[in-house]
Sequence to fold (140 residues):
Amino acid sequence: MPWRRSRGNTIVAAAVTDAFEGMRAAVARIFGRDGPDPVIQRRLDETRQQLATAAPGELEGAHATQVRRWETRLLDFLADHPEAAGELRALVAEFRSGLPDAGGNVTNTISGTVRGGPVLMGRDFGDITIGRQDDPPGDG
Fold:
């Protein structure tokens, strides 16, 4: 299920947004069952702090580490409380919709001479146009 792969990522991504307090309260309530779980609140605060203080070159690794930790916590929790799966699914859907899109457009500009054909930089490509913007279609 796609929501399973994204639940830890959603929690970690929300930790560095304005949605943190709402997400923190909701996750702690789900884990606490009868009230907010203070251990989970502390762990969420630690997640936020670690991401906020990570050096730019270390942020991706810190994010991945936190996602793995939250996935493990969530799996352990759901093993003990399978009845909470629906609540967790709703929480992920609610907070994911409010998070900024991680995708987007990237523009690379190459100045100088390129001989022998186009140069492409990146990993995933789509909607590629080769030629100058002022070239009419079919002239490239």
Observations:
- The two ends are 44 Å apart (CA to CA).
- Residues 106 and 122 are 9 Å apart (CA to CA).
- Helices lie at 2-14, 20-32, 38-53, 59-80, 85-98.
- Residues 102-106 have pLDDT under 50 and may be disordered.
